[in-house]
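Researcher: Before we compare anything, I want clean individual predictions. No alignment, no superposition, just each chain on its own. First chain goes here; please echo the sequence and then give the structure tokens.
Model: Echoing the first chain and its structure:
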Amino acid sequence: YKSDAPGTNPFLPIFIDEIKKDLEGCERNFLLHLLSYPPKDLPKKSPEELISQHDPDASTPPEPDIEAMQQDYLKKMGATSGFLQFGVSPVLLDPDHATAGAELTDDNADILTEDEFSMIGFEPSFVRPIPQLLEPGEDEVCWLHPETEHQIMWDNTMCADSSKGQQVRELMAKAFKGPLQSTQQATLLSELETDSKLVYQCGLTPKRLPELVENNPGIAIETLLKLMSSSHITEYLQMLVNMPMSLHSMEVVNRLTTAVDLPTEFVHLYISNCISSCENIKDKYMQNRLVRLVCVFLQSLIRNKIINVQVHKDLFIEVQAFCIEFSRIREAAGLFRLLKTLE
């Protein structure tokens, strides 16, 4: 405690009691040094050195303010627990000269114990009743022996006949490369109708959809209808919009629009791509043929109320400009007259 304030020293009461006694000059000077600011070399000196180096004629150290130290000490003790304040002091008194050299016997063996040398006061124990044990409930330790009824879960696909799935994959692989025969188409559509989950295992991906549309549009229509509840249907529709315009692609889109409610944005985007394809083609013969197909396709959408050109003005203006550009073609002129009746 040499670097702490004197009021924080736990032995301060002992020092104050001793300094008030009639002590010899060496002992009094030693206590005054402890209560004020002791010399740096004081902890290194032995008691014999302190006694031998004491000069009776030298001036005594200034006496500190004992009352202020007591007040500081009492304030510090006020922050401790009540039991600690009234505890037995851990300081041991010096034995008298008569018993100083006596041997430790069974009669005085329990005078000094190991706990007496603790720097903490021996506070009295807090008397409190022992808590009563509560009777355990029936459901208190149910987790020790949980009553869980285990049921056997059968895997119905175990040892199942996978030949149908293999046959569907083989037929779908052929459908990507070329038109299937009528018997093969009937077999493939029958298997897909029997097990709707086979459409997810047949090998059809969004990238391979254009191949299926061009070679087997009927199968493409049926598979897309079964994929409408899939989370990947947007990818399939996006691929259908971006593929080159053809008779088969328009057939697929036309059948889809009459069977299910396709997103309006998808239908409008497909119409815009068809118009753009007709305008960019260089071959006049193919251009006239595609314009006729697009006009028939648009008339079918308008008459079946798949699209509403009266509400979507941008689409109305785009289709009208398309009809005026290809007004020399009879189907374009018929589409233009249909638009005029809707104004």
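Researcher: Okay. Second chain, same rules.
Model: Second chain and its structure:
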Amino acid sequence: AKFASLGNISDVNDARTLKTSEPLPLFTENGLVERNITVALINLTGFHNYVFSTPTSKVIKEHEYFVNYLHEVAKRCGGVLDNFNGDKFWVSFNASAPCDEIYVAATLFAYEVASKVNREASLYQQYLEAEQLRPSNLPPLSPQRPRFHIALRGVTIGVATGQAFVGPLGTKNIRRLTITSNALSEAAALERMASRYPDCGVMVGGDMIPAIDGYFQYMLLDATALPGSGGLRRRIGSIKGLVNSRSHPPSEWMNRELASQLATTYLPETNPYDDINNCFNAFLEGRISDIAPQLTELAARVTASQHAHENHSGSSSAQSGGSPRRRSLSLPANMYSPTVCADIAIMLHFVASAGSYVDGRQYKSPLSCMFEQLVN
């Protein structure tokens, strides 16, 4: 049972200690078993530089703390931290332990980890930049102690799904629980792609996109070949936030802690990322003439909605003596991703830079060459 257990990982002896969980039961049978799985690959950005510039004892301690953190979040979302090697961590859903709603569970896990770790990293980088620009005649700024010393540059995560053969393989002396699936190589490819886009902590693609539609705000970024796609274009996208709509109430999230925060707030009937993604799909289908005007009009609507929400919140606070009222469902601009306006501009730039394609059906991503099948 050592394959699925992290019970032998000791707690980090400091104020940030996480409680070690009980090991999850193995979900395997004799031989290889075929089942549908989802996997997430987490990469620590800048880990090698951290190792070279940090005492070994601290690296070991911080790595142990981060492994404990991933294990706790994975277990809460229904996954298992199956393997890790240096700066790479593999979390599976429905491979070594049973899990329901594997697409939503895996994406929720990835979004929670990326949101928390990358926010901590961003705040710490802002502190370093401010300290570097501080005039010499001013006292030093209050030191900021990041929660994840080992992830000062954040993380990138790729999430993929597919059929897999799961079971123990090896010899009598060396035997390991193994997962054989295209989802592994696809998740690794998506993680590498995430590092090429700004503010992209979690990248999904292929079969994951229709599976999470309605549960997450996501933005389509490209259509490219992925490992196992046979050279066909697959859409890839970045997770921007959660969606709590009337068609997907919180009970469908199995009351997970992160999703329960949305219990009384709903997105408007028109999610701006739906419009952004519709424009991207129109480009791939060769309908490109009206994309730029649609995106320009969308940017104006989002900006107007945000201003209306700010004015509404300000007047509500004034009327209640500074205490804001319950959020109005008619003005839920606070539910927009904070990067939505920048994302509209990114899509406008993409359409403009790809404008040489008279027909978007002939569009070839610059990333496609990374995963094209070799021809003998």
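Researcher: What stands out in the second chain?
Model: The two ends are 43 Å apart (CA to CA). Additionally, The mean pLDDT is 75.
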